[in-house]
């Protein structure tokens, strides 16, 4: 899946940007505050409806303007699909694919799967389980067709169950109905996650080993309740505690991906630099498994790469990205550092863009030479 055309209006400091990205490598350089991260955010908004920096859309609208628009034309299995997102200050939003309003943001997300690597990615190891659940569910969402409806069903059941638990007098039979439905859906969700993680784990460990010598690293999926026990049974056992506190303690909403080194949490053992490499391996492994299972490639947005990794590891990450074969958008302040990582790869179609005060222009284009 490739972004062939990107057109942005009034998004942060980007007043009017119109690009035809290379289907392979796109490098954006420019001084701090020029609009590089904003450009990646705009791509993210195009397929997810929101930025990776903020869940709010108002800060994304250029000051003094009432709305932003991002338009893109993507290609997937030889078919071109126009996508468009428009968000207004008053909260009104339009999300379109093929000229038609999409029914949900999940539908939009399926058109152009995106992976982001930026400074926040390093939260993956030290952040809350929610960050890792979202990470794991990205893959499950894209490879298990029933995942999203099941996930929504689980959320609905949990909401009902929690509101019943908060009542003064709990209606036992009604709670039992929700428990049964919650257990049925949670079982399916757990199966989807387990299947994806199985594929993911071996890809991750293999990639990591090719990146850095780090013995003892392991990754394990925790489903959110005792793996030896039936979930409905767990709900019954936990009833007193759940009703005292007014929420459901165990379940898929508490699932986690434990990343450890010799049994200890990776975040407590590894150096900052090692953590970054582990996170890069996690992100690339997802793209790899996604590619194997779907036959498509996801798009990588890598923000300020030279600031995050040293030259040796940057070059290794670039190797991985090249092997994945998908489209990449990478930013950095210095042109030379950014381009140097790709210099030895003349066979790749590369475009280099200069970002200056919200304007973006192509300064180098090897895409026609590379594809000749
Ligand atoms: N809503 C907005 N309207 C106008 N400018 C904005 C808005 N939000 C952020 N900016 C400005 O956009 C500029 C670009 O930011 P950013 O994309 O983070 O730059 P870079 O990644 O190149 O360092 C910053 O100077 C920031 O102050
Ligand atoms: Mg930036």
State the main characteristics:
single chain; 372 residues; alpha/beta; Rossmann fold; 6-stranded antiparallel beta sheet; 6-stranded mixed beta sheet; 14 helices; 15 strands; 24% strand; binds adenosine-5'-diphosphate; binds magnesium ion
Overall description:
The structure is a single chain. By secondary structure, the chain is of the alpha/beta class. The protein has a domain at 1-113 and 296-372: Rossmann fold (3-Layer(aba) Sandwich). Helices cover 45% and strands 24% of the residues. The chain contains 14 helices and 15 strands. The chain has helices at 36-48, 105-109, 123-126, 129-143, 147-165, 172-211, 231-237, 239-245, 266-269, 272-294, 305-308, 311-324, 335-340, 367-371; strands at 2-11, 14-19, 25-29, 67-76, 79-88, 93-97, 100-101, 114-117, 217-222, 256-261, 264-265, 299-302, 328-332, 350-356, 359-365. The strands form three sheets. It has a six-stranded antiparallel beta sheet, with helices on one face. Strands 8-12-13-3-14-15 form a six-stranded mixed beta sheet, with helices on both faces. A hairpin with a 2-residue loop joins strand 6 (93-97) and strand 7 (100-101). The two termini are 21 Å apart. The structure holds adenosine-5'-diphosphate (ADP) and magnesium ion (MG).
State the CATH superfamily name of the domain at 1-113 and 296-372.
P-loop containing nucleotide triphosphate hydrolases
Give the integer mean of the pLDDT values. Answer: 94
CATH C-level name of the domain at 1-113 and 296-372: Alpha Beta
Number of strands: 15
Over the alpha carbons, how many angstroms does the gyration radius reach?
22 Å
Q: What is the CATH architecture annotation of the domain at 1-113 and 296-372?
A: 3-Layer(aba) Sandwich
Distance between the termini: 21 Å
Low-confidence stretches: none
- Report strand order across the widest sheet: 2-1-4-5-6-7
Strand content: 15-25%
Q: Main beta sheet: strand number and arrangement?
A: 6 strands, antiparallel
Contiguous helical run count: 14
């Amino acid at each position: 899946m490739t972004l062939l055309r990107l057109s942005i209006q009034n998004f942060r400091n980007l007043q009017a940007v119109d690009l035809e990205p290379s289907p392979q490598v796109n490098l954006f350089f420019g001084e701090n505050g020029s609009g590089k991260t904003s450009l990646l955010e705009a791509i993210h908004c195009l397929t997810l409806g929101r930025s990776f920096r903020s869940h709010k859309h108002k800060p994304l609208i250029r000051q003094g303007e009432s709305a932003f628009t991002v338009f893109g034309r993507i290609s997937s299995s030889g078919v071109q699909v126009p996508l468009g997102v428009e968000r207004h200050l008053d909260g009104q939003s339009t999300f379109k694919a093929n000229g038609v309003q999409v029914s949900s943001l999940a539908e939009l997300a399926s058109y152009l799967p995106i992976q982001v690597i930026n400074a926040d990615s390093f939260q993956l190891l030290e952040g809350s389980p929610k960050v890792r659940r979202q990470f794991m569910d990205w893959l499950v969402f894209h490879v298990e067709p029933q995942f999203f409806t099941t996930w929504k069903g689980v959320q609905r059941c949990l909401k009902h169950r929690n509101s019943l638990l908060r009542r003064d007098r709990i209606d036992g039979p009604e709670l039992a109905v929700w428990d049964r439905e919650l257990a049925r859906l949670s079982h399916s969700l757990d199966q989807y996650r387990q299947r994806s993680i199985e594929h993911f784990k071996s890809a991750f460990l293999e990639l990591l080993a090719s990146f850095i010598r780090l013995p003892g690293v392991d990754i394990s999926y925790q489903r959110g309740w005792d793996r030896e026990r039936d979930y409905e049974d767990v709900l019954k056992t936990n009833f007193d505690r759940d009703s005292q506190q007014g929420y459901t303690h165990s379940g898929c909403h508490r699932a986690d991906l434990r990343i450890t080194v010799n049994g200890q949490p990776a975040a407590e053992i590894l150096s900052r630099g090692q953590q970054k490499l582990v996170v890069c391996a996690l992100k690339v492994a997802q793209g790899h498994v996604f590619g194997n299972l779907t036959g498509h490639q996801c798009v990588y947005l890598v923000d300020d790469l030279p600031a995050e990794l040293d030259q040796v590891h940057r070059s290794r990450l670039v190797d991985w990205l090249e092997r994945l074969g998908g489209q990449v958008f990478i930013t950095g302040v210095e042109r030379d550092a950014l381009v140097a990582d790709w210099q030895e790869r003349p066979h790749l179609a590369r475009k280099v863009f200069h970002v200056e005060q919200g304007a973006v222009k192509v300064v180098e284009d090897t895409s026609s030479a590379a594809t000749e």
